[in-house]
Amino acid sequence: MPGGILALCAAFLALVSVSLFFRQTSSFWIGGGYLVVFLLASLGVSFLALKIIKRSQNSFCLHKDQEGFTSPSFEEDLQGKEGSVATELKPAGHVRIEGRIYQALSQKDFLEKDCPIEVVSTEGSHLIVKRKI
User: Which of 15, 21, 100, 115 registers the highest number of CB atoms within 10 A of its CB?
Assistant: First the structure.
């Protein structure tokens, strides 16, 4: 979006400069010649920029073999596991299950540190936990 805004501003300023040049010249042919030179120069610069970008695809484009960010997901076998709260869940924080630390969300309420918990489900990169009664 910012690149588009910059391009619109540049196009507006280019049109203003052409119109101001037409107002200052006494001959229609001089103004028309300026307009033709301006349009040809703009097209030439655009063509050159596209050619440079196409030639250097390694630095401007993603390749087909590249993958985007993927968040970690948890196995279904964590459901029903028991553990304790490692950091306060208000409602997000960390829990300890079988000696490992996981990101978690409290299903309902605030859970203080060392509170016993049970994993209810998994959602993306978080475990959904509840207080173990």
Answer: 115
Taking CA atoms, 115 is separated from 109, 128, 131, in Å, by 12, 15, 7
Task: Say what the pTM is.
Answer: 0.46
Residue 37 has pLDDT above 60, yes or no: yes
Estimate to the nearest angstrom the gap between the alpha carbon of 53 and the chain centroid: 21
CA 71 to chain centre: 14
What fold, for 76-131? OB fold (Dihydrolipoamide Acetyltransferase, E2P) (2.40.50)
What is the residue extent of each domain of the chain? 2-60, 76-131
95 closest CA partner among 121, 122, 132, 129: 129
pLDDT(25) > 80: no
Tokens of 2: 């910012």
Amino acid identity, residue 56? S
In this predicted model, what pLDDT tens digit does every residue of 92-107 receive, in sequence order?
A: 999 999 898 988 999 8
Mean of the pLDDT values across residues 64-91? 76
